[in-house]
Amino acid sequence: MKKNSKSLLAVMGVLLCLPLLAHAEIYICKDASGKTLTSDRPIVECQDRKIRVLGKNGMTQREIGPPLTEEQKHQKQADDEKRKAAVAAADEQRRQDRALMARYGKEADIEVARQRALEPVGEQIRREQASVLMSEKKLGLARAEAAAQSKGKVPLNLQRKIDDLGQEIVDSKKLIVERQQEVVQINSKFDQSVKRFRELSGAATQTVAR
């Protein structure tokens, strides 16, 4: 009880001095021994502990915390970067939403754009599939011709033709797989656009209804 009374008297003493220090802020803290210190400037004895700053009205205006440890500094930096990334992501999402709603007036417009994006990829797949069938047919004939050679000796030009046709088939099949993966990516992109368009349209409808 006596300790609290002393602290109260110390603060009251500071407040009584306010008229003399009305032009300045007043710094209050407790040192390592628990003694209340006051000053019109930052208190050296309390540089490693919390300091309260009183304004001209005698009310706490702000607090100065103790310096951060290295671990706290790293954590604060990580938190700051995380907040900045979240803000940037939110800004980017708003930008994409505005572009989406400006580009498409209705969901059917998205499907039209989907088909337009898929058409050239589908055409390339069909072209490569036809090429594979043609090359496989030629390869079958070339191999039959090679098998008919006497003593199993295949002419160099015929062997080169067989090798080239085999490589053409491998290349075409690889390209088909790549284009099929592109189809999946295109559909995934437009599926996300449809989903987001529905969300934004629903939100806009609810806003209007209110």
Outline:
Residues 1-24 form the signal peptide. With 210 residues, the protein is α+β, with helices and mostly antiparallel strands.
Blueprint (SSEs and pairs):
Elements: H1 2-16, E1 26-30, E2 36-39, E3 51-54, E4 60-64, H2 70-103, H3 107-147, H4 156-209
Antiparallel strand pairs: 1-2, 1-3, 3-4
Pfam families: DUF4124
Biased composition (Basic and acidic residues): 70-84
Signal peptide: 1-24
Structure characterization notes:
By secondary structure, the protein is of the alpha+beta class. The protein folds into three domains: 63 residues, no CATH class; 36 residues; 93 residues, Orthogonal Bundle (Helix Hairpins). Helix content is 69%, strand content 9%. The chain has four helices and four strands, in the order H-E-E-E-E-H-H-H. Strands 2-1-3-4 form a four-stranded antiparallel sheet, with helices on one face. Strand 1 and strand 2 form a beta hairpin. The longest helix has 54 residues. About 7% of the residues have low confidence.
